[in-house]
Structure formats: structure tokens, C-alpha cells
Amino acid sequence: MPVIALSKEMGSLDKEVAEAVAKEMGLCTVHNEIIEDLTQASGLRREAVTRLVEGRGGRFERWIARAGAFNAFSRKDLFEIALKGNVVIRGWAAPYLFHPVGHIPCVRIRAPLGSRVKNLKKALNSEDEAFIQNEIKRSDRAYAATLRMSLRMNSEDPCNYDLVLNTERCSTDYCVSAIIQLAKLPAFQETSASVAVLKRMALCARLGAALNPSPQASRVFFVLEGDDAVVRLQGLVDCRDEALALEQIVAEVPGVRKIDNRVRSISGHRALRASSL
Description:
By secondary structure, the protein is an alpha/beta fold. 46% of the residues lie in helices and 17% in strands. The strands form 2 sheets. It has a 5-stranded parallel sheet, with helices on both faces. Strands 6-7-8-9 form a 4-stranded mixed sheet, with helices on one face.
């Protein structure tokens, strides 16, 4: 069940490459941004997002929307998609998010600024080169900032990728062929160890998504112990009922088999002992 993670860079032809790879390999495509805020997902200013949502967006903003910039997924969603397999996942943070998983090739599609401007002028049917160049630079800044804040990653570090392709020098067909060859290498085939890593990361994402809405979540953290989906909860809350409520939230997360609740209450109750599900 192949999974390929491709970066997104405005005007680099990454969308064309991703769609061609998916077609050749019989995969589906998902364009994502790992964000909580729609404005961050698009790389547009808040007022631009508002105009687009209200149907008043300009030509550039409508093009961004058609390209899929508003198809935002949570981290949990993306791991569930990867677990199902047979997908090309394209987005700012896709290569960084999945790099720890041995069977997922992580690829960056790049192009120099001049080439990206040329590509966007054609896509937008526009000659406003200064405006397009400014939008590309602003998108790049948002890209780098999102990665630093969300994943603490440096987008320029080549060690975060398995392959980097420059579409100014490499044709789309060449890029597609290179990615497919990479994905077929023995090093990028599923193993029990690589699948276990993906499942563990997916479980962490589920736990984070489940606990984050809770008012007590900021004072509690969880640790996965061993390979048996044992979740250790630690932290300090106001009362024992809050500790029990957090345990109940974790108990309902798919994949959790046992909980070691070491959350303590200010009121002096002891930490709860381990409980099996």
C-alpha cells in the first residue's frame, strides 16, 4: 500500500507531478496543510481569506482555492489516511511529518523563483510579475514559519528529504519517473517495523486530538510505553474527578489498550493506578 509524501511550493509544478505520479501508480491524491487556522493553511492574509469565504476573492485567491489550499486536515486525519495507504500526500509539511516512517518516500519539488513566476503567470493568465513574485515570497515565508512552529523543522535542510527535484531542469515526466523508481526501491517497502512506527505516530496524533479540547490538557502530558499501546498520563490537576475524566477520554481513543494514570490532584489524592481496557 504505497504512500508518497511530496512538498508543496507555489509555482513549482508540484501539483502536476503529484497527480501524474498518482495516475501512473494507481493512487489517490490528498493535498493537505497541517494547520488549525484557515489563514495559515492558505498562506493568504486574513482579509483575503475572508473575501474568499464570502465569495469576493480575486483571481489569484480563487486560483489558490482551486489548487486545494483550503483542503486542511488535522495531523490525526493525515496519519489515518497514511495508514490506509495507496496515496500521494502533498503539502507543506508532508515530507517532514512522515520522514520517520521508513517506507514513505519524502520528496521535495522545487524551482527557482524566476521559473515559478513564469509558471504562475501562465496559470493565472496574468502579466503582473511583481504581484506574483510578492505572493510567492509571502507564501514561502508562511511555509517556513509554519514548519518551524508546527514541527520545529528547517525546510532548507536536505536531510529532511529522500529526493529533491528541480522542475526548471527536470521535466515533469522525469520527476514522475524518478519518484516512482524511488518508491519501488527495497528500502521503501513496508516492514513490520516501519508500519509499527506509523501506527505509533497515528496513536499519538489521536491522543493529542482527543486531549487538546480538554481544559486540563495543558497541565497533563502522555507517554506511550513499549509496543503494547500503554499510555502513561502524568501531570497535576485540581481534583481527582478531573484525573478520572482525562482517563476516560484516553480510554475512548482507538488503539489504546492500557492506561497508567499518574495524574495527581492538588487536593491531595494519590495518582490513579494502571487500568486495563
